[in-house]
Amino acid sequence: MTKKSFFFSQPPDCEPFYFACQNSCIHQSRHCDGKMDCPYGEDEEDCDLCREGYFTCYSGSCILLEQICDGHADCLDNEDEKDCAEVKCIDMDCTHKCVSTLDGKQQCICQHGYTLAADNITCIDTDECTKFLPCSHICTNTEGSYSCSCASEYILRPDGFTCKARPPPAPSLIFANRNDIRQLLLDKGDYRPVVDDLMNAIFLDFHFRLSLLFWTDVSLDAIMVAHLNGTGKTDIIRWGLEGPSGIAVDWLHNHIYWLDADMQRIEVAELDGSNRRPIIWKDLEKPRAIVLNPAQFLLIWTDWGTSPRIERAYLDGSNRQVIISTNLVWPNGITLDYPTDTIYWVDARHQIIEAAKTDGSGRRKVNHQTLPHPFGITVFEDTLYWTDWKTNSIHKCNKRTGKNMTILHENIVFPMDIQSVHLLRQPLIRANKRRGCASRNGGCSHLCLPRPRLATCLCPLGYVLKSDRQTCISDPDKLLILAQQNYVRLFPLRQTDSNLTKVDMVFPVDGVVSAVAVDFDAEEERVFWTDVKAHTISSAHINGSGQYYIIQSNLDLPNGLAVDWVSRKLYWTDAGTTSIEVANLDGSMRALLIWQRLHRPRAIVVNPIGGTLYWSDWGREVKIEMANMDGTERKVIINTNLKWPNGLAIDHGSNRLYWLDAATEMIEVAALDGTGRRPLIKDGLYHPFGLTVYDDRVYWTDWGTNSTQSANKETGEDRMVILDNLKALMGVVVYNKSRVRIPSPCDINNGGCSHLCLLKPGGYSCACPTGLLLRDDGHTCPNTPSNFLLLAHRTDIRQVSLDMPYMTDVVLPFNGLVSVMALDIDPVTGDIFYPDSNLSVIFRSSLQGRGIKKLITSGISAVEGLAVDSTGRKLYWTDLHRKSVEVSEMDGSNRRVLFYDLDRPRAIVTHYPTGSLFWTDWSDGNPRIEKAHMDGEYREIFIGTNVGWPNGLSICWDTKVLYWTDAKTDSIQAINLDGTNRRPIVKDIRHPYGVAVLGNMVYWTDWETKALHRAEKDKGQFITVVRRGLAGLMDIKAVPGPQPVENKCGHSNGGCSHLCLRSPSGFSCVCPTGLTLKERKTCNSSPSNYLVFAVKGSITRISLDTHTLWDVPLPIPNVQHPIALDFHYEKQLLFFTDIELDAIRVVSLVNFSNPKTILSTELNTPDGLAVDWIADNIYWTDAGRKVIEVARLDGSYRKIIINTDLKEPRAIALFPRKGLMFWTDWGENSSKIERSYLDGSGRTVLVSDNLGWPNGLTIDFKMRRIFWTDAKRDVIETSDFNGNNRVQLIDDARHPFGLTQYGQYIYWTDWHTLSIERARKDSGEHREIIRKDLQFPGLMEIVAVSGKSQTGWNSCGERNGGCAHLCLYTPTEKSSDNKGVNCVCPDEPHDWICSDSPVFTVPDITNSILPSPQPMPDPGQLLTLLMVLTAVAAVAVVWIVLMLVWFHCKKQSKVEGPGRGALTYTNPTYSASNSDVNNDKRPFTWRRIHHENSQGRRFEERGEVAALISEGSSVEHESPPPTPPERGDSVT
């Protein structure tokens, strides 16, 4: 018994497609793949042997045993005819020799290279090339032998059979993986994504010489393109696709071809998607994959239909042929081996790979093993590569023999199509052989598609081919336009392409959801359509360009549409709003025309020649009506035998009206006045919908037959199907140029009308846009209504005119709104103020949408209440998330927070005559209405009982009454401003929100009824609904509102330097937040000490001069995403890194208006930043490039000082007076905090154990300690400058990031709590949140700005230490000859000659921070010491004199502070351009999210902590250790 059988008596039961090892199962694809996958290698045994009854040839092929010694060469090398027993034949005249066969018979056999002829005696030459396919490319048969050769740019390998592509480039595979496209390098095995973040990429192809990658996405129904390196991803075809599948690139003529399985067509376009045309659309069922041979003008595709097949045609779609039609089920991928003119395809049902010539001949099976579910396939050199859905792998085998089948790469999520990428996979043709489209585009003006000896010129949508058969001209005419839910389709009724029959094309426009009605304007060649799901009316040029929304607000169900081509107006019906409206063709001057006695208006047509319009109505009284085009003289013309009147059409030649009825299934006709009614078509209609008349025919769409048909308009006979197999066809119209533009009374000066000029029989009338009342002159309209309401509606702002007999709302032209919950209007200027809480912006604009300006762009979150003080010219608002009430000037300047300890503030109003301010607060435990003076003084609870959810507020100035809504008590209540006579006004309402008073009425919005209501303001009588169907109504304001009164601040702002705010006694001068009043009326220009922190889109300040610790955004323009911050107090400069720009920038701390980019190249992730305020240098860390760099303040003389042993350097801090630099480094389980001198030398690790994600880092110069945050361990710690005396101050921070120190406190930012906290630096006690609920994305670094923290001096502070470029101060022990001056040259050469020696010596008056311990001197040495000190004093006097001399010669520094004017740079190489910013970013380190919360060292008694790190502790008095030795790998 063998070892195998001893241990395993029976093989396991394996599933289909699996091979049975002795004790396990492996996939069948791994059987005989050259690698042992079974424990004992049995999967690789007997792999080269044929099964029983067969003979194995040297080539690996198998033949029957009967074929041995039969005289016929069945093996390539004739081994089946060798070693045969030679005998002397009787009665056989063999050409070569005679042998005895296995059964003892005599048989003629032939020499190598020959085989028996049909007479079994004569030897003839064997055609090895045809029979055995021995060569990779070209096989030449010779007498008795053959020879192999290779196609151009390939070389024959030493084996004499196979061909290899000439290098370079290296070959690779690209394959679609649904959510991404990946690349596999065949020479190195490297595997990487090329394009990611995809939806559902299936098929792909490439253009090697243009470095382009194309793919189809079946989720987006789009064709996409990117560069082969993955950049520049965009879509080129995104409309008119329903099931895009295979795609192929014609690299010779620069076209793309694709299949659409659902649309059942093959289309072509230029590489950018232009000039799109279908070329094959008949007799396709489920086209799947496609491949091209541009040199042979061929396209070949597979079809999965009921009759699976492989077809081919020329590139223009002509000469179509079926080449494979038998034994196919699921033909998936297909590829073409160009040197051998062989196609290979996979059949997932038959689980095989097959091959054939491009004409279908020579079909053969390639693989010998069953393939589970092959999908895509490609070929390169001698190897086939394919993807398999079941194995989730890429496989390969020999293309000729199917041998050497192996798995190339596995564990792929969704392997789809695959292509081999190499220059020779897209061979070119020689210039002297180019013909047709390959030369000058075949003479075609647009699309040129080649075929043998000819070039077919085709035109894109909206163009026709001239008689020269080469030139396309824009001449759209006789086009059938169809609405079909997601598409608008065009079908040419005339045809000029002789080689193509008529085919419909998709109108190339975006955003179509459910198109219903269509019409056109031939004068400007535009198409119009309505969309009942998108609630829009749109327009585009006939070629699809210039698309825009005509109407995109206040539309519900726009079913009908009609163009007045004479006076150039657009009419439409809306079954949702039950109205008919009119506007100019561009959507301007929109007016409500008919709004009464309409129920479900559907189709509409106009007769501008006669001045009348017609519409159908599906309502309770089904009818067809007519009116003048100005809406007058309305009457019913048809109201019997109607049920579902859908389409309407006018025959202007015969003045007849046509309509169809989907219920009666008839098309009828009558005169324009409704007389002479008769049926036109009564049979064969199943659910007709759209209708139009053109020339002598009537056209209609039919839901029941999924078709578009036509018939004679007089008799209904001669019916024909125009298009079929198109579901959900809606409106239809024929685009034609026969519409006659006749003179109109509106042509001259718009008929004298200020706005709309509308036709009517025999003349015209003037009309006003919705909400405006025509003046008595009958021609002019006002710009705004006299009385109106303004409604905040989240995504828009609406105006309801109270001047008109109807109550309808008009959406004001403010685009891009997301969450507008409050608004107010300035009666002085007529401007409207509105916040968008989602955008965190307060806007100001005219009612017409002109002059939109952003007043407040940062430091706000959810503004739900806003009030304009029109007299004092101030703006007040509440902020729900920031729990505050603020005030500013009308332009947003001089912001001051009045209250910041609120709960849930909402509405706010002012009453200038009494100087009072009121606001509501939704507090869960204490809902209330509060009151204060307008200057913020004397705050009190005005109403605190029987209050639930106080929402809106409004004041009637005439009666001095305050009104409010309460959504919990379902009421509107009122109270006198003096607090008396509280009373209910309206009870039992649903969910009131906003409220406004105008005249004798009170108006309110209601969330539950989704409506605007009104009632009498004193007793709440006569409740009515003003406007329904408006979900999300918020605030409301009434115009005219309170008018300005006498301004108590007068014309001189009350003498106040900043804010002059009203108070009951007059006014108060107050300062913007953070500033202090130094006199009674004058504020300081800026705080002396403050915090600055970075958030996404802003840099914000918190003053430490005032009791109110409130954040104020600094007005720095174009801040994207700042991370690190530092400052230069003497020069009043703020430096910051911006990771969106990958730049380091600087701005003046005085005016903030002109930030400059000082560095923008070779920056990847600049996370840390520090300023050397003595030497005027900046230092930064770059986590992406793993370096620490230094430069001058203007970015010049840049140098890398540390570039070794860094993982992800983050925070950095400097002690310039002592020449020290500290930084944190994030490593994978190897984070550390290090220290070095300012030139990077003397490097040592201070902290490396028990360290997670050290983010922030700061220094206390007085205590000689460093502090850091750890976001992984959620702690804040401190140590001395040597890493000793380590103490954990805060042990439960949530996710600390930035850190700074000022006075007795440390301050830090926290990502998790979105807050800024502080605590005592010596003990961690007295911890408090100073700002919370910041609601900022990306709360980053924080720094304390104070002149107290940037003191001291060193030798580099005097004329750059005598250095020509960089002066990096180091302790005197290292640079004793130069008194601490270390002159360093930049990495990039500069015009000036650089030297590492100073041009003069500056005396050093500093002491080293790390002196060696010295013994105490004995008394005998004291006298000597005294003498030395006297000498030093004398030298100091001389030195001071020299300093005074040098002071007068001191040069101007490179970066000047604000005292010298604007921020300037004198470096001649400076550039603020961002053009060289590196875009190859890696994710920056601060985005990491921690997953563990290791518990750090805790202390039961805070006193122990204070004792360790308090000022005057042992850290101060102990002798510090000697200076650490310099690292050998330090960068100097």
Q: Level of helix content?
A: under 10%
Task: Please give the number of β-strands.
Answer: 119
How many H/I helices?
5
Could you tell me the mean pLDDT? 86
Quaternary state of the chains: single chain
Shape descriptor reads: flat
End-to-end distance: 74 Å
Could you say which structural class the secondary elements and strand pairing correspond to? mainly beta
Estimate the strand proportion: 35-45%
Radius of gyration: 43 Å
Tell me the strand order in the biggest sheet: 16-15-14-37
Low-pLDDT windows of residues = 1-11, 497-501, 1406-1426, 1444-1532
Major sheet details: 4 strands, antiparallel
Describe the structure concisely for a colleague.
By secondary structure, the protein is mainly beta.
Question: What would you note in describing this structure?
Answer:
This protein has 1532 residues and is mainly beta. Helix content is 3%, strand content 40%. It is built from five helices and 119 strands. The strands form 35 sheets. A four-stranded antiparallel beta sheet has the order 16-15-14-37, with no helix packed on it. Strands 17-18-19-20 form a four-stranded antiparallel beta sheet, with no helix packed on it. A four-stranded antiparallel beta sheet has the order 21-22-23-24, with no helix packed on it. It is flat, with a radius of gyration of 43 Å. The N terminus and C terminus are likely disordered.
